Amino acid sequence: MDYTEKTVSAEDKFRGKIVYLHVDRVRLPNGREATREIVEHSGGVAIIPVDDDGNVYCVRQYRYAVGEHLLEVPAGKLNDGEEPLECAVRELSEETGFSADNFVSMGFFYPSAGYCREKIYIYLATGLHRGKAHLDEGEFLDVEKYPLDTLAEMVENNELRDGKSAIAVLRAQRYLQEN
Question: Which residues are catalytic?
Answer without folding.
Answer: 137
